[in-house]
């Protein structure tokens, strides 16, 4: 991750340094959301922030929950799978269980969907609004075991800021 003002790399080699880097990322996210509550704009900005701030990613983005299916939302990276049933893949497992999925080796995950053959590890977090699944946030890496508990915790905190800063009921499918 690079410091937003100096452009120098932040130390992510230790747990305390990584937590400090995620604290900075959360401050950047809060700044992005200041004065903007539109769900589409906030999801797009968040995906861009994470993709550009975290090293070792080849994809970062959202899949929006629609009934028992996830549909591609704002993302950064190569083209992706457009629809994922809750019954398949790491994203589907996250949507189905509402639990963070931290997968050090996607090839060992039964039912993994390979949107990009270069991906080796994956972290997927549920986006819950008032207890309801609205989306999952998916991160892929070409590096094995790229993600750990500190990544999950730091991104969960950043997603909490997103949820709080966003007007979710303005999505087109929620309008009468």
Automatic annotation (TrEMBL):
It holds the Pfam family GAF. One of its GO terms (molecular function) is L-methionine-(R)-S-oxide reductase activity. Residues 21-162 form the GAF domain. GO terms for cellular component: cytosol. Belongs to the free Met sulfoxide reductase family. This is GAF domain-containing protein. The lineage of its organism: Bacteria, Pseudomonadati, Pseudomonadota, Betaproteobacteria, Rhodocyclales.
